[in-house]
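Workshop exercise sheet. Pairs work together: one partner reads the sequence aloud, the other fills in the structure field after running the prediction. Swap roles for the next sheet.
Pair: D.N. / O.F.
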Amino acid sequence: MTAEEPLGRLDDDDYPAFTMGRAAEMIGTTPAFLRAIGEARLITPLRSAGGHRRYSRYQLRIAARARELVDQGTPVEAACRIIILEDQLEEALRINAEFRRAAAGPDAGAEGR
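Structure field:
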């Protein structure tokens, strides 16, 4: 392990750097809200050796989106489902665009080599 590796984690969106209290503070909500979206399986925080929840920046962006929807009057469970569907749609559109590029490209058949 080099001295640079720990600092590299600061740029990693998936590194579980934030405690529940800090995560809730950052997105302007309560720990109970984070537990609720965890129970709805929208996000699954990692656990520290002591069993405490730890959140990544990516998870905080998802939680912030859920908070937006809840603040607009959407029930927590429905907000979580909306976000999951948005994510599935985004992934399907990305895959579709890749297929279209591959089909339109001059070397479309050469990708498997």
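Discussion prompt: The chain is about 60% helix and 5% strand. What would you look at next?
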